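re: ur question from yesterday

yeah so i grabbed the chain u mentioned. its 740 aa long if i counted rite. heres the sequnce exactly as i have it in my notes:
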Amino acid sequence: MNRTWLVASLTGGAVLIAAACAFVGWPSKSPADPPKPAVQAAVAATPGETAVQLPIGQVVLFSSGVGYFQREGAIEGDARVDLSFPTQDINDLIKSMILRDLDGGHISAVSYDSNAPVEKTLQSFAVNLSANPTFAQVLNQARGEKVEVVLQQANAAQPGTMTGAVMGVEKQKVAAGKDAAVEVEQLNMWCADGMRSVKLADVQRVRFLNPVMDNEVRKALETLTLSHDTQKKAVSLNFVGEGKRNVRVGYVIENPIWKTSYRLVLGKAKEDKPFLQGWAVVENATDEDWKDVRMALVSGRPISFQMDLYTPLYVPRPTVVPELFASLRPVTYSGDVNHIDIHGNGRIDDRSAAIMGGLKKEAKADGKGAKRQGFVSESDMNIPLSATPYDASAADGLRKSLGDNMNLGGAGVSTMATATKLGDFFQYALDKPVSLPRQKSALLPIVNKDVEGTRVSIYNERTQAKFPLLGLKFKNTSGLHLSQGPITVFEGSNYAGDSRILDVEPNEERLLSYAVDLGMEVNPVLASDNGRLTTIKVVKGILYSTTKLRETKTYTIVNRNDAERLVLVEHPVRNDFHLTDDTAKPAETASDVYRFEVKVPAGKTATQVVTEERVIGSQVQLTNSNDDQMRIFINSTVSSPKVKEGLKQGIALRWAMSKTQRDIAEQQLQLKTITEDQVRLRANLKEMPPTAAAYKRYLDKFDQQETQIEKYQADIKTMQEAEHKQQKEFEDFLNNFSAE
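ran it thru and got these structure tokens back, copy pasting raw so excuse formatting
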């Protein structure tokens, strides 16, 4: 079933279905194909309308994988433009299509095929053609409709035309010889003079007199015809107006990105400027030939996204339960009555918003002061194209084979594009309309300029550990934005190697490398120390120190060539290291490497020394550090006298506290020895009679030990109090000690 969008009618105005200039869709083979002849025959018969074709007149390709296509042409009166798009492009079409009727007309509607299966669509029409119905089945579906029937006249008395309403088709048995009968289909009609029945085999033509029914059949046939190509959907654009008018249809869909490739010729002489030639690779991946199409190539990556606008979406709605009332029939109750009150409370919130985008007029001045239209102007939606005449005689390729010097600038291909700045993007507008058959690609010259460059040898240990690479310190003096792409390098007339660049802005410098320089050799040697203290300070008992680690890498460069070489040594940038003052300043600093320039005479050796330092900070709680750690800081030359004096005092306080702790341990050992000896004495006194001489001696000794135990316990308690006081004094001193 066709879904129709009613678009606001604006006399002489633009219709914007979706104002989006760039997005990404699914893989596409066709930006839009004109409908097949059978389709045109099916849809062109709408009264008052004329079906026309709009060829592609303008193509703008972006390097983000989308393209802007503009169809343009003339129509007269009410007209309909029928296009065919791949199913995967319909979302992008809905999002970005722009329609313009420039000479007083307006757009009445844009319709496109539904995303529903074709069987479901066919079932929605008054006559269902989904099951390949017979003549009789079609007439049975049209029961009650008024028709005009043209009959085959067997004799002059039989009428040639009948008009009436279809009552149905029935089968009757008719005799066919002796004892034989065949079934014949009879069309029953209600005519002005009553009901009549005719053989269906005598019916030559049936025409519906109801224009609505006639239109339903036409639409069903149109849907059936378009279903033959299941990968494409029909889109119809309806223009309403009088007289001859110019119309334009623009849309953005997915397209292969345009690519660039370059040729760079290095002259034999040192003073010769490198010559850069650039080609754009353009592909027509559609099923339609491009003939005399205005083309622009935009180097930019607008944000692109995909949104499913084609699939019908339905908003879930709440189910509202009606209130239930007790019937009028008397109710008998048994025990308590349970009152049931069921309420449904739902709300449907249907919100819609229309987003209309305006087209901004953008004018730019070229070098001569003339106005140049921007990407989308209020007047005609044209992409800016240069009016510079194109020298076709120069576009004959490289006219000479490789000679002593490949002079592409003098004997090569002239550019066929004018480069201009387009807001934040850069575009190449082709000076000559392009014709490109379907499913074909083309190389279009867009750059032919002398540029600046200095030959260098580039060494990076991570790229090639032994040899540097032959390269060029390239400066984009072409005045053009150079899109990323491969570069084939020639030296004179000889192939030298391949390179690749990323996007380069005008006057921006880049390095190119294209071959291994076997005539140069680099040997890197790394040396590092164990680190040295640089600063020491104490804050509230915490000692802060910084240590510098020093690494030195020496690059020894040997030049075995017969000419002087300029070598760029790339040394990695490490965020935790920094170059020392005694290291020569690098010629360049990139995000990941330093580049040092070293001139190496022919047959000589040169060195590049790169010294880096790393600062490591540490902190130590002095109360938890031992004397050896403190003595390291005391003996350090970077410690101030105040720091040294404080650390010495801390060591002295710790020593006094430690001495008291040793004395306590010694007294506790003596106490333990006497206590163990008393166990022996108690055992002897228990076994020996009191009258024995030894008994009195053991008893005296036991009494003396008791006195010693009391003294040791008193001394230990005194020393523990002193030790506690000394520890507090030690910790209070260090915790409050600060010095730099």
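noticed a couple things. The first helix runs from residue 37 to 43. also Residues 649-735 form one domain.
anyway ttyl
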